[in-house]
Amino acid sequence: MAQKNSKTRQWIALAAMSLGVFMGLLDVTVVNVALPTMVRSFNTTFTNLQWVLNAYTLVYAVTLLIMSKLGDMYGRKKVFLGSLILFVIASAINGMATSLLVLDIGRGVQAIGGAGMMSLSMALVASNFSGRDRGLALGILGSVIGISTASGPLIGGYLIENFGWSSIFYVNVPFGILAVIMTIIYVKETPSYGKNKHIDLGGMVLSAAGLFAIIYGLIVKESNPHLSWGSLEVSGLLVAGLILLILFVIVELHVADPMVDINMFKRPHFIGIIIVAFALGAGIYAYNAYLTALMQNYIGYSAVQTGVRQLTMSVWSLVLGPIVGILSSRYSKKWMISISLFVGGVGFLLIARVIGPDVSFVDLWPGMVLMGITNGMVNPLLNTTGMEGVIPSEMGMASGLLNVFRQLGTTVGVVSLGLIQDSQYENYLNGHLGKISNMPAPAVTGLKKALVEAGPFSGHGVAFSSRISQAPFAQDFQRVVIKAYDNGMTAVSLTSAAIVIVGGIGAVLLLRNHVESTEIPTEKRN
């Protein structure tokens, strides 16, 4: 009876941690859907609202490792719980925000809470479960990670259409309070590994500053696609970030109690997991933004209609997670990961093949299903495989590193795919706008400039505006704009296919089928 009660407490603890992770990751994507409503509510522009997104992305990425280390040193439950409470308070403040400044600051504070929950959840699950139950629990957590990132358009669209933009923040409050209560009662604390150790303040500052500079540099490039990589605004930040991270590694090699054990990066298996995490972010997660734009801006689905159709991807995370958790104890995780990534590559190729002016969901769903299967398989396996061979005192940091590279992959992917789409879109416009009959040269120049400034996401709005629709060249012009967008979207799909296939090859070459127990000290592992 006691054992049964203990098992029940474990699974309730998993529910508490999963709820926190779901909220934290959902808030990375759900705000995208709310931006048009916020523009009207705050009487501002999309440009001014950009920091509602960027504040969360930046702070979330730069605090992941810090929160991981604090959890390892002082108890993961304590830091997870504190992060959860901070997230709930910030969510309430965001919902009440009457100015963009308050909302931007609130999003940054919310991101600290989200980073703490995300970075420690995996390590907490690994320490609260053992044996086969650990693989199943990590698989379920992986399902939550996968479905939370894919369900933003559906959940956000429903809440905004029915309750307004503030509801995407207010909804976190009751569920967050429930998660706090469940965490206090059911989650077991881990040992505090920081006894007799000093906080590596230098490492924390350097890692945060380095990641901030690199990610902010990428954000600047994304927001200003026509800035060259050599411009001071972009290259200055990227170079500064790289220098800071090199200094971080040097410091970590020489301090007595480093923030990150650099020896972790000497293990091919761990490098392979990082490559997979990066490929998942840069391939699958980054592509979601472009797929959503295709479905909403060009096919014409509403946010809710888009979210419902994207269930063909996200539902697989819910279905496959527990199954993968069980299968991972019987079959090679290395080959399950690599084959799943190759399946995703095929999905992207199928989408690239059908993109055209008349594309619809009927054409897209086979590729979307394969993408969903990849996400549903790889995310849980990333968790279980990432924890293999990691000693208990490093589990939080290992989890943090996986999340950093997944988030970095997403950021790099969004920027890189955007630059590829912009380039192909503009090239097509340059080659075809001048060939439209009955279109005066001044109109070609002016509209080309307007389309390039609007970008592929918003070019549809320019082409189908009421003023343009009355022009004698309207139909030919609109056809060129749509084909230019399709040209860029095809290139984006092919690039995403290449990213996940490379990730699959990395898994084949670097992952190991058998990694020694987490109980074995680092110095004995080879």
UniProtKB/TrEMBL annotation:
Belongs to the major facilitator superfamily. EmrB family. The chain crosses the membrane at residues 12-35, 47-67, 79-103, 109-129, 136-155, 167-187, 199-219, 234-256, 268-287, 307-328, 335-356, 491-511. This is Major facilitator superfamily transporter. It is found in: Cell membrane. The keyword Transmembrane applies. Keywords: Cell membrane, Membrane, Transmembrane, Transmembrane helix, Transport. Coiled coil: none annotated. Residues 13-515 form the Major facilitator superfamily (MFS) profile domain. GO terms for molecular function: transmembrane transporter activity. GO terms for cellular component: plasma membrane. Its main location: membrane. Pfam families: MFS_1. PANTHER family: MAJOR FACILITATOR SUPERFAMILY MULTIDRUG TRANSPORTER MFSC. It comes from Paucilactobacillus hokkaidonensis JCM 18461. It is a multi-pass membrane protein. It comes from the Bacteria. NCBIfam families: efflux_EmrB (TIGR00711).
